[in-house]
Amino acid sequence: MEDRAAYSAENCSIARTLAVVGEKWTLLVLREVFYGVRRFSELHANLGIARNLLAARLSTLVDHDILRRTTYQEPGARPRQEYRLTDKGRDLFPALVALLQWGDTYLADPAGPAVVIQHRGCDQPVSVVLRCAAGHGPLTTRDTRPSPGAGARRAR
């Protein structure tokens, strides 16, 4: 923004998003759910996270309507919970792919990435690319600028 100091940083969508999903375990839980893991026991086994931390992260994601909790029951067993993405949760997929893409570029194993996200239709790798509403892109930080949105508030 031309005069960034004139606007409050308290009304920031990045800060609000990080308050919900910005913790390591929360992002790793989302990764697993995007990979198709739905059950607490599978999440626990895959992540190696303490059960109480996993329960807390799942509750936060449910409370924010990113995941929904559903009940399932296998024959002869007690009812259990599984977790499925909501529309709001599915909308986080590009953000996770962008993190994966950045990690693959700067932090991947010398042998290459551990996971490649592929388009089911053609088996080619997917990538996150920024474009403007008119379709120009790919864009970088040099091609963009922040400007006050409808929710911008003047600093006091």
UniProtKB/TrEMBL annotation:
Keywords: DNA-binding, Transcription, Transcription regulation. This is Transcriptional regulator, HxlR family. Residues 12-111 form the HTH hxlR-type domain. The lineage of its organism: Bacteria, Bacillati, Actinomycetota, Actinomycetes, Pseudonocardiales. GO terms for molecular function: DNA binding. PANTHER family: TRANSCRIPTIONAL REGULATOR, MARR FAMILY, TRANSCRIPTIONAL REGULATORY PROTEIN. Residues 137-156 are annotated as: Disordered.
